[in-house]
Write a structure and sequence with these properties.
InterPro entries: LRR_dom_sf (IPR032675)
Distance between the termini: 50 Å
Radius of gyration: 24 Å
Largest sheet: 13 strands, parallel
Shape: globular
Order of helices and strands: HHEHHEEEHEEEEEEHHEHHEHEEHEHHE
Structural class: alpha/beta
Strand content: 15-25%
Helix content: 25-40%
Number of helices: 13
Protein name: F-box domain-containing protein
Length: about 400
């Protein structure tokens, strides 16, 4: 008889964090792809695991195509639907135009049944929306008025009844979307935008704490600062990623507007793929963020790196990620980049209270000088913090 310990012999107090870890790992987005609902298979192992894990696992659902949407509508018990607080959905976005568009109440109806599935989730608090990669076929001959794209109306044709706390878009850069055309921004705490976004004039967002802008196209953000787009917000984290060759470029005036928008309380700042920021603007912004704990910067220099912004990092900083490189047509600013390396070693690596994580991707010439790479690794080993040398802003881009 095998007396080796099994998963169910572990105390329940330890199994519960394992269930939570499993679900957290499953919900992670890799290569911008929507997670599946395969986590529910875990509940079929045995009745004891079902009883223990189902209250946790049923809080999350992922609907990736119309077959899953219809299966959820037809077969999910209402008791299960009411437990869903987090949904990942593929939004078709197409609506059928009525023959008589003057009848406003029936002027457009969604092609997909996603809106019915969302209506069955009364407790929904977090919504992540992905592109629909398996859309329904449709014959334009059936309805002479045809189809139109209306992103939020396709999800909420009768208006939103959810008070969402998290609203995240993982769309293709060319996808046109008007956030908050239907969904209320009042309760949003976590917001991620992507695609060709056009916001309504001055949406009131008093609860907004965490904002991510990635692969934004169109000119809306070129014409407005961050504080103009999200008045009333009190940001604790802000993440920007260029993400597309036609994407909107984060400039000095956008960076400067983060200070009043966060009231100096920003704790996480991520800026990836920036080529329009000056070193002086970066330093000025960092000077105004005394509580910053996490800073990631991928900067493409063109003709200046005059100000050593590393010296402006908050004493409370615990995670630093830096990638500095010149544009292909620009002259490398070796002396200035060397100054950043020296400042990082002096003010961050060797400070009294060591950081938690340092990720750096400087050119090899600088890391070889005076055996800098080996010296930094020795400092990290002795002071017991994590040091990674080399590319860090590739792959899944976990910062975004």
């Amino acid at each position: 008889m095998d007396n080796s310990p099994t998963f169910l012999t572990i105390p329940f107090e330890l199994r519960l964090p394992i269930y939570e870890w499993f679900l957290t790992q499953h919900r992670q987005i890799r290569l911008n792809r929507q997670p599946s609902s395969q986590h529910l298979r875990f509940l079929r192992i045995c009745k004891q695991i079902y009883d223990e894990a189902s209250p946790l696992f049923y809080r999350y659902i992922s609907l990736r195509h119309e077959r899953q949407i219809n299966a959820f509508i037809l077969h999910a018990d209402q008791s299960i639907c009411t437990q869903v607080t987090w949904a990942d959905v593929a939004n078709d976005g197409r609506v059928i135009l009525a023959k008589d568009a003057r009848k406003e109440a029936d002027s457009a109806s969604p092609l997909s049944n996603l809106h019915i599935a969302l209506r069955r989730m009364p407790s929904l608090k977090r919504l992540r929306v992905f592109p629909c990669r398996q859309g329904l076929p449709f014959s334009l001959q059936r309805v002479p008025a045809g189809l139109a794209l209306d992103f939020e109306t396709a999800m909420y044709p009768s208006g939103s009844h959810h008070q969402l706390r998290g609203y995240e878009l993982y769309l293709e850069p060319e996808t046109k979307v008007t956030p908050f055309a239907v969904i209320s921004p009042e309760s949003i705490e976590l917001l991620r935008l992507t695609g060709d976004c056009h916001l309504p004039a001055s949406p009131h967002m008093p609860a907004l704490c965490h904002l991510t802008l990635h692969a934004i196209t169109g000119n809306h953000f070129d014409l407005h600062t961050v504080v103009q787009c999200f008045p009333g917000a009190r940001l604790e984290s802000f993440c920007y990623g260029h993400g597309d060759r036609l994407g909107f470029e984060f400039r000095n005036r956008h960076l400067e507007s983060l200070i009043p928008l966060s009231c100096g309380q920003l704790r996480k700042l991520v800026l990836l793929g920036c080529s329009r920021l000056t070193s002086t603007a970066i330093a000025t912004c960092l000077d105004g963020l005394p509580q910053l704990d996490y800073f990631a910067l991928s900067l493409i220099t063109v003709d200046e790196l005059r100000t050593n912004f590393v010296l402006s990092l908050s004493p409370t900083i615990s995670v630093v990620k830096l990638h500095i490189i010149n544009a292909w047509y620009a002259i490398p600013l070796i002396a200035e980049e060397r100054g950043l390396c020296d400042a990082l070693e002096t003010t961050i690596l060797n400070r009294k209270i060591p950081p938690r994580q340092i990720w750096v991707n400087f050119r090899d010439r600088l890391m070889i000088e005076e055996d800098r790479r080996s010296r930094w690794r020795e400092i990290a080993y002795c002071r017991q913090f994590m040091l990674a040398v080399g590319p860090w802003n590739t792959g899944d881009q976990e910062d975004l």
